[in-house]
Amino acid sequence: MSASELALLIAVVLCVIGFTALVVVLFRLLQSLRDVQYELAVWRERTEPLLAEMRESTLDARDAVVDARRDLDRFDRVLGSAEAISEAMTGTSRLARTALSAPVIKVAAIATGTSRAARRLTRRERRARRDQSRSVSVVSARRRRSS
């Protein structure tokens, strides 16, 4: 065996060892990929219901936000109407106060004056009756004394 044959034999043995090592590494890599696939399938089984629930919750939240927007828009319209009514009532109130204050004051003044006049008249009538009853009693007392 010559040196070139020996070198060739060593090269072939090293190639076989390298190829065997490569096969072992590739086999381990294949085993690791299968383990990763299995774990991924398990993870997918566990997360799919959670993702479905999250999607459903997201849709429910979206519907709630849409309803809240509608309610807020409706509330804005109601608030605008209330403000308009309030402004109209303020104007109407001013108008009514302006239009009715003078007649109401006059009616109150007439009522007060009439009640005072009625009291004075009733006082005069009472005084007249009292004076009349006093004069009648004085006259009758004098008559009794004279008789």
Summarize the structure in words.
- The chain is mostly helical.
- Helix content is 98%, strand content 0%.
- It is built from one helix and no strands.
- The protein has one helix spanning 3-146.
- The longest helix has 144 residues, at 3-146.
- The model has no long low-confidence stretch (mean pLDDT 85).
Short description:
The chain has 147 residues and is mostly helical. The protein has one helix at residues 3-146.
Keywords, separated by commas or semicolons:
147 residues, mainly alpha, 1 helix, 98% helix, rod-shaped
Structural class: mainly alpha
- Proportion of strand residues: under 5%
Largest sheet: none
Spans where pLDDT lies below 50 across 5 or more residues: none
Number of H/I helices: 1
What order do the helices and strands follow? H
First CA to last CA: what distance? 196 Å
How much helix, percentage-wise, in residues? over 70%
Cα Rg: 58 Å
What is the strand tally?
0
Mean pLDDT equals 85
Shape: rod-shaped
Topology:
Elements: H1 3-146
